[in-house]
Amino acid sequence: MSSESLPSIGDMMAASVPMVRTLNLEFTETTTERAVVRMADQPDFHNHVGGPHAGAMFTLAESASGAIVMTAFGDQLGRAVPLAVGAEIGYKKLAMGAVTATAELGRPISEVIAELDAGGRPEFPVKVEITRDKDGAVTGEMTIVWTLRPNQ
Predict the structure, then answer these.
(1) Tens of pLDDT, residues 5-37
(2) Is-contact 6 24, C-beta < 8 A?
(3) What digits encode the pLDDT tens for the residues 109-144?
């Protein structure tokens, strides 16, 4: 099968995670270095001040983290399941309009796989920055801790 016929990470996420479809998230970049996911301004997901609801921004950031995890460790799915085990988010500035989440792995891929190879259940952070599209201001920062749980 050629790589042109393989679904993108964004397509796979939309197919397997209903909230990705609900929020109409757009995966604009997915590499092992970073994942970038955009959420358009949608009045159905506004909060009491007219910006994106905190829950929608959490889902946006968590989806970006999932995209980079799948890109970095998708070749390990035959022997381990990626799972988010914890998350912390800080809302820094008022988010208005469209917002974008950019995720980066907090540990080298090779180090995580080496721990899995040694029989461990590696954990690793993914750091995410949420910015307003209109001016690039950072509106939120999130860290999601993921694990690769070995299959039984």
Answers:
(1) 567 888 888 888 889 999 999 999 999 999 999
(2) no
(3) 999 999 999 999 999 999 999 999 999 999 999 999
β pairing state of 138-150 and 35-39: unpaired
32 HSE (CA, 13 A, CB side): 8
One-letter amino acid of 32: T
Decide: pTM greater than 0.90: yes
Identify whether the C-beta of residue 130 lies closer than 8 Å to the C-beta of residue 99.
yes
Q: What is the CATH number of domain 3-150?
A: 3.10.129.10
Domain ranges of the chain: 3-150
CB 63 within 8 A of CB 19: yes
Whole-angstrom distance, CA of residue 81 vs CA of residue 10: 18
With tokens 């599209």, the residue in question is 133
Distance of CA 110 to the CA centre of its chain: 20
Return d(Cα 77, Cα 68) in angstroms, integer. 14
